[in-house]
# Entry
Amino acid sequence: MRTGFRLLVLAGPPLPPIEITKPVTTFGKAAECDVRLSEPTVSRRHAVIERVDGDWYITDFESHNGTFLNGQKLRPREPIPLTHGDQVRIAPWVFRAAFRDSPFQLSHTTNDGNRSMLQTLAGTEGRERSQLRQLLAAAAAINGAATQAELCDQLLRAAVSMSGFQRAAVLRHDPSAETVEVLAHLDAKQHQAPFEYSRSLVRGAIAGSVVHLADPQASGSHSIVSLGISGALSAPLIVDGVVWGLFYLDSRGRERSGTGEGADACRVLAEIASLALSNLMRREVEARYDTLRRDAELASGAQRLLIPPESGVVAGVSYALRLVPGRFVSGDLVGVCQVDEYRAAAFIGDVTGKGMGAGLVMSVIQTFLAARLAISNDPAAVMNDLDIFMSTRLPPGRYASLWLGVLDVERATLAWTDAGHGLAFIASSDGVRQLECQGTWLGVHTGSPYRTATVPIRPGERLVLVSDGFIEQPNAAGAQFESSGILETLRDAGTAQEDVQKLFEAIERHAGTVLIRDDLTAAAFTLGSQRAGDPIRVGAECSMLG
# Structure
């Protein structure tokens, strides 16, 4: 799990690196934002970065000037994954996401002192016909790359071939230029010596120029002299108007160093690669959106197949429920089913993870509940069997919480057990109380059995179940709604329908302008006046939405 990362400032007014460690970090001019960016082009609430199931996402808050990822303007209120090396533009700043678990090798640059030995190279007018053919072939290969790794490989091959240098690397710098990430490297001579990088050349490329090391002996750098570096060159790779990285070349000993024409070819290759990289990164942003959209559509399709009506009567138990999708496809499940003519089962839970993986786990839980409740009305017995069943089938690191209760119309009781959900309440005109959480999550299988608790349900009392999306929803100040918000809201309700309606009204007031993060699900149940043998509006099979 990625616990945090830094945003490095590549362009814009000076700022220290921004540490992103909290589950939710907001950006904007407003005083309540976690990262205050006091510039006219920044909106009061501009964007948010948040962690969901170990992955990081960024969302634009319908800002006036937009939020950009790798040069692509983000769709308002639609989250998109953040990965290592992504460039985020909140004008006038451009940041790079630097994750601690970078897949690339880090290397320190060599402090080679005096920049007077560097020459900034401008383009020359003429081109040999053979060099033009090489450039056209290189341009086709670079633009045809399907991934950043392939693009870097094609760039290095062309640069070594056309410049005369023997070693090449694509680097991504930090703002100080003291360390670089080595994204790709190529050694035509297969040397075993370490590849040293001149800090002066790195800084020159960061400034946007093609530069080369004119006199290595004059550098005063022992490491460069001892390695026998006879020449070196760097050129910037520019994305969204900012230096994204650079490619770096050198020769050693008696190896042929790059010529002026070779350096000029590198400048052209840098421009070709910059355009290709910009287009590739924009396509990658669209691909991330498409992946999330397809996942959401598949999960929504499963919801439509499983969703029961928003109100109804099952075995004499009246209910009302509602689900409002959040920005992330979550693993909420809630349902109601008939146990026999006098009893109805109600359940709510959550599966770790998101998307179709979580949806498949929910379907398995629903199927098991439907089969097991047909032969047992004891919630603990059903939960114990489900725990054993799921502990051998859940993927590593995936668990499920579940609250399961059986409402008995004839005896006016509620028998229930809890596998780590803990968000069940009894509401009446006399007050609201939260039912105590009893057990651990499904799939952990600690060996401790679940137990059934039984409480009376008096006329007018309601069983209210909510998803964790309610209690974890923050407001503009970052304060969560919590169980106290549920208790306060239910004090003013009087029926199952009112319970559900008031909960959603309260969470909307609490969230204010903050985006709803996760699915919000609420359900309320009360013992109705329906008699045994009367028609049942929801069939005998368990219905679930998730």
Remarks:
- The CA atoms of residues 237 and 274 lie 5 Å apart.
